[in-house]
Request: fold
Amino acid sequence: MQVKCKFCSNKNDKEQMECVKKGKVNNYYCPKCLIDIKTRDEIINKFYEYTNSLVVISQVYLAINKLKEKKLTYDDILYIMDYVINNKCVLNYPAGLAFYADRAIKQKRELDKIKEQKEKVLKSIFEKPTIIETNNTPKKVDSAFDITNFL
Ligand SMILES: [Zn+2]
Reply:
């Protein structure tokens, strides 16, 4: 049986979806969408905590959706929110997040690149060393300098 995700409206097999009970109603979500919802709520909580804004939540949703339209993920938008907080940026309206998007995302992509490189290096360190087996016995190295020649 196929069910529809309450968040993204995609249909999928019931077994592949997460069921969240709300009263007597079963709501289904893609596992990824549940993570997205959690991230989105985190963005919203941080926004209100940081700005003390009295703006209605629909305005925050709208600002987030505008950034989503720019092909940013919820993780990206959370990063923008964190960027604003960490740099003590002025933020009076949720739409103001878009103002910091370019700078924050540029920083995030650079950090991602560094992280990726670090992981590559770590992986190469922990990879099994390749042992080359040969049948050759080590060559006896003749000493070029033999002290007995001078005795
Ligand atoms: Zn979904």
